[in-house]
Specification:
- By secondary structure, this protein is mainly alpha-helical.
- 78% of the residues lie in helices and 0% in strands.
- α2 (37-63) runs parallel beside α5 (148-159) and α3 (83-110) runs antiparallel to α4 (114-144).
- It is elongated.
- The structure holds MU-OXO-diiron.
- The site of MU-OXO-diiron (FEO) has 7 residues, from α1, α2 and α3.
Length: 164
């Protein structure tokens, strides 16, 4: 059985993952409005991955005899200055998520909660990937600068991303 303290902390993280989904969907919407369909696709795939992150925690809490309690999801931003600004925001956001996952790991260790520790290892690995992909697009967008052609090529690349 999961402890109340761990249950509360994971419930908080479920909210954070749902917020991430909401944030990326808002970014997708920003890109749809800018006619960057490939960028929008990438963000929609990202949003659905965040839903999966939330659901993985959701199932885990239930399997451990805990209770998932959902809270209100904060309103995400709706506008950014440029595609580069969106990816810089994404990178910073993912660094924050990494730090939240690391704190959850500290708590699991302090409580000697092995199942939670093992679950969190998946998230630790996932965060390495999340930060790397956001940072990759920050760098690519910097290289592209104000080139319309470069942006179109990146839009094509991001349009290839598929779920799963
Ligand atoms: Fe659920 Fe983007 O980390």
């Amino acid at each position: 059985m999961i402890s109340k303290k761990m249950e509360d902390a994971i419930n908080k993280q479920i909210n954070a993952e749902l917020y991430s989904a909401y944030l990326y969907l808002s970014m997708a919407s920003y890109f749809e409005a800018s006619n960057l369909k490939g960028f929008a696709n990438w963000m929609k795939v990202q949003a659905s991955e965040e839903m999966e992150h939330a659901m993985k925690f959701y199932s885990f809490v239930n399997e451990r005899g805990g209770r998932v309690v959902l809270d209100a999801i904060e309103k995400p931003p709706e506008k950014w200055d440029s595609p580069l600004a969106v990816f810089e925001y994404t990178y910073k956001h993912e660094q924050g998520v990494t730090s939240a996952i690391n704190k959850l790991m500290d708590l699991a260790r302090a409580e000697n909660d092995k199942p939670t520790e093992i679950l969190l290892q998946w998230y630790v690995t996932e965060q390495v990937e999340e930060e790397a992909s956001a940072s990759e697009y920050v760098e690519k967008l910097k290289l592209v600068g104000s080139s319309g052609n470069g942006l179109m090529m990146l839009d094509h690349e991001l349009g290839m991303r598929k779920s799963g």
